[in-house]
Amino acid sequence: MIFNSIEFILFLPIVFLLYWLVFNKKLSHQNGLLLIASYFFYGWWSWMFLGLLFISTAMDYAYGYGVASTNRKKARLFLWLSALNNFGVLGVFKYFNFFATELQHGFLLLGIKTNPILLQVALPIGISFYTFHGMSYVFDIYNGKQRPIKNFIDYALFVSFFPLLVAGPIERAHHLLPQLQKRRFFNYQQAVEGCRLILWGLFKKVVIADALAVTVDSIFSNYLDLNGFTLIIGAIAFSFQIYGDFSGYSDIAIGTAKLLGFELLSNFKFPYFSRDIAEFWRRWHISLSSWFRDYLYIPMGGSKKGKLISIRNTFVVFLISGFWHGANWNFIAWGFIHACGFLTLLLLNKNRKHVNTVVAQFAKTPSLIELFQIISTFAFVSFAWIFFRAKSLTMALDYIRHIGISIWQEPGQFFTLPGGKLTIIYILPLILIDWYLRFDERKLRLPKTEFLRIAIYIILSLFIAFQILTYFYSKPSSFIYFQF
Description:
By secondary structure, the protein is mainly α.
């Protein structure tokens, strides 16, 4: 089940009404209903993988007690068992075929022909997310931030809570579990904020991202026949497509959780207004980047053991982050490019320059310096997105090479309108609205006049309804991050 489907539009109100009107008497009833709803939500996609989700959940629940041991050697053993179990699951379902194929290529270079055994099984949706949920629980216990919980239903709900199950945000045990362990009471203002986020998230996904997808797919599928200017437009369009798609999903997830009385971690804070690549990664997919920071970068020594260790840790984190997104060399190249961009700031000690400020914090428009920083950072990010969007590393390199050759041979193309020029219709409103909202990603600031607010709700709803009803007899487009 996906957020932009008719099924979810029916599913959410039913769960909402049962949750607040029928199962609101006891905490155990609330959590029991949400767990059943979460497994139903996941099983709607494939009942076959519910067993994998349950086994993964049960094993980390058990490891939590082992990690809590006062015997540090025993605790460390269970920590490693949990890591091996979770990475083993990812290795089998997500990376086995990649390594088997690469091993075959390696043998071919030595003149040895092999026939690797490949797994013919679909990648379980959300596996990268719920395994990281489980590991955060075990790591937090090991680090003394969380105590093992006795109630298995509460823990299982933490792992499988349906708003975040398939594409995050990647929650932390010490943040979400305390909310699960106390009874919730309906909060009207929180519910209104949730509805607004759901509406805005659906608009970003269904109206903006899906419309841009048509242009992006056309350009990337025919890049050898198009000029460099059009290919640049394709890269820019994909930058906003993936932003609208994934941030839209996160808005819906956070909004849905608000309807049920929960506050999830923020996942996006207007990343395309970042003034350098370090700020970008503090604003893009925040739950993942902070997960790698807390559970990988800092345990390896972070930046406190000298520049060489910091450089090593930076490359390790970004390369693993790239590989987390997909078992393909183009994702690793994407991570490497971002590592190089971040490294420049690290060496100049400027990687924490924009930690506590927002662009144009005390003005309505950015300064010329800020504008240049935003444009240059966005250009760097969009260049890297080519590797993310391409089907292979070879295709990404060909795409970039074709841009250079086309512009060299025909520089006058910049004076003519490129293909995909209508993407500005979708990109410009998103930029303007994000600029207006840039101080707080969790609350949509709307006009105080009730008539204007209602008009905005109606306009957004009509656009969304038109797009969804268009796909009523066909399968609605999935979210990009479902494949990870």
